[in-house]
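Throughout our pipeline, every protein is held as a single compact record rather than as scattered files. This encoding replaces a full spatial description with a residue-level series of whole-number codes. The remainder of this section carries one protein's record, kept here as part of the documentation.
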Amino acid sequence: MKLLQVFFTALKLGCTSFGGPIAHLSYFHDEYVTKKKWISAHAYADLVALCQFLPGPASSQVGMAIGLSRAGIFGAIVSWIGFTLPSALILILFGLGLSAMDVSNHKQWLHGLNVVAVAVVAQAILGMGKKLCPDKERLTIAVITSVILLFFSSAVLQVSVLIVSAIFGVYFLKSNEDLPHEPIHQGKKTIGLFFLGLFVLLLFLLPLLRSSFDLVEIQYFDSFYRAGALVFGGGHVVLPLLQAEVVPTGWVSNDFFMAGYGLSNAIPGPLFAFSSFLGAVSSVNPHGWTGATLCLVAVFFPSFLLIVGALPFWEQMRKNQIIRRAMLGINASVVGILLTALYHPVWTSSVFSPKDFALVIVGFLLLEFWKLPSWFVVAVTVAVSVLIYD
């Protein structure tokens, strides 16, 4: 009975949670704290703090953690399925339709999806920058990160920059914010160690398996697992990591990539569900439903392992000033990574004319200052693009 309650509550949120990770957390609070009373307000805030510390999609991890506290490990799984299923189905069906049609006859609305992604990412950067870079030290970290990655772009360098930013945070930043506290379901530390160990093992084992066996399934799982494991700061930040994995390899064209990303911002649910679209439209087997499911599971699996593994140790982690200062540096660096992604691939693959730029600034105005929902802005931008492009 509890599993069904967890699933249907998460499914309801997956159908109605528009607006990205921050908005998702508000919907979660209203449902889980105010209506269901499954968790107290202080415990919820504590949980959000933990999920912001961990790499991966914060809103999905909060949902998994609440499912875990309500119905154990299977509760975490069905909570993820319920929240992710609606958006994944929409994106997979869109991907299959896009693959089957003659794209040359639909370039106008496809380009409109590409253009609106620029406004969405720009708004995300501004919102994250205000929160994560409120002083000159952290703003400097963000800018330096962006400059380095603009000149020398690689996944290894991106991780290295995050590590250096964490070290800088430990020595030069101060954490004055007091995290709200109330004990939450923690689980056994032995189980936590097992899941954390599995997370690290797969991070190093999958590249070895990829180099040893020429199997597309292993390549998929390795690429999407690493993307899900190394993302700090929410769904938008996974964009450059996924783009680096699927576009240069020829798995997905850049036009398809940006079109899928544009649509993912117009529908409810987690942005990480974008991975299911990439699996569906991949040019290599497995694609379609099989490829979509494989990519979707792979990108979320690190988040599941981390949240189940970290919860038993959260009481110690939350009191550790070194961890808190390191996270200040990492979060600032994340803003720089997203700033880099705004230029490439988002801007460079979408803005080619004054019309494109006009749509971008109007879309940004509607999102940031008029506070219109993202799905509405995406729909308007696509409709206008059909009218103004030849």
In short: Residues 2-101+108-176+187-388 form one domain. The first helix runs from residue 2 to 16.
